[in-house]
Design brief:
Bound molecules: pyridoxal-5'-phosphate
Structural class: alpha+beta
Distance between the termini: 24 Å
Helix content: 25-40%
Number of domains: 2
CATH class of the largest domain: Alpha Beta
Number of helices: 8
Radius of gyration: 19 Å
CATH topology of the largest domain: D-amino Acid Aminotransferase, Chain A, domain 2
CATH architecture of the largest domain: Alpha-Beta Barrel
Shape: globular
Length: 282
């Protein structure tokens, strides 16, 4: 496997990460996960824009332009002959003696690799069971930072309960999932948490909202409560690798009749159409 390390494409075994890398010691860095369908990067520009915004939020000056990053990622996909899967990339603040304050000068460390991952057809058709969990993350969930302990612990809680995901809530307001955004549908209205510092503004969330809007669905970006969620007609989660994923039960309580809902399935079809026909725009 070819991986990207700084400006070079090298073999994975030739990557050497320093034990004083701030990503390793502080989680001091940002990352992205980009979907690749049939060798083509989906919404790459949006991902790179978000990466640059995350970096800027943690005052990290990236050593590459967006165009350079896009070109390197496309080359990585080609070198590995990736079909359908994803790219993982991260920048850390770099290597420096361990000290909380920013180092005077350090070069950010870029690593990226690709992985095959098919479209999860069976899950998309059947939906997933999830739990509810308190949102224990920090207050800048809009930054795609390497600090993922809150998400890791919530996700593990779901897995321990034999479920696929955790829907998070802060003081009874539903925010998102540990690795995805969350939507509820009530009386044909599609509702999701607004873009604030409490959620990551997912690229799949944006595509879903864009498609819903374009096709005349009623969309409302507003806060909603756990009680509203439990009374929803349909619920679905969105994310780069899970697309538009129906949620069929929450804490063992069925959502609707415990089958993927009608509007969810329509949105899945619109999303599938988008991913099958998109034009790359780099
Ligand atoms: N919310 C969180 C907390 C995430 O970690 C992710 C993806 O990793 C998402 C939402 C979905 O974002 P995207 O659609 O860009 O994958």
């Amino acid at each position: 496997m070819w991986v990207l390390y700084q400006n070079e494409f090298i073999k994975r075994e030739d990557v050497h990460i320093d034990m004083e890398d701030r990503g390793y010691q502080f989680g001091d860095g940002v990352y992205e996960v980009v979907r690749v369908y049939n060798g083509r990067c989906f919404r790459l520009i949006e991902h790179t824009d978000r990466l640059v915004a995350s970096a800027s939020s943690i005052l990290l000056n990236l050593p590459h332009t967006k165009e350079e990053i896009n070109a390197m990622l496309e080359k990585l996909v080609q070198l590995n002959q990736l079909g359908t899967g994803y790219i993982y990339l991260q920048y850390t603040r770099g290597v420096a003696p361990r000290y909380h304050g920013f180092p005077e000068s350090t070069t950010p460390v870029l690593t990226a690799y690709v992985k095959e991952k098919p479209i999860p057809e069976k899950m998309l058709a059947e939906g997933i069971d999830v739990i509810l969990a308190e949102d224990i993350r920090w207050l800048r969930c809009d930054i795609k930072s390497l600090n993922l302990l809150g998400a890791v612990l919530s996700y593990e809680q779901a897995k321990k309960a034999g479920k696929e995901e955790a829907i998070l809530h802060r003081n009874q307001i539903v925010t998102e999932c540990s690795l995805a955004n969350i939507f509820m549908i009530k009386n044909k209205e599609i509702i999701t948490h607004p873009v604030t510092t409490m959620i990551l503004n997912g690229i799949t969330r944006r595509v879903t909202l864009e498609l819903a809007d374009k096709h005349g669905y009623i969309v409302n970006e507003r806060e909603f409560t756990v009680t509203e969620l439990l009374g929803a007609d349909e619920v679905f989660a969105t994310g780069t690798t899970i697309e538009v994923m129906p949620v069929v039960s929450i804490d063992d309580q069925p959502v609707g009749n415990r089958l993927p809902g009608t509007i969810t399935k329509e949105l899945q079809a619109l999303f599938a159409n988008e991913r099958n026909s998109f034009e790359t725009r780099t």
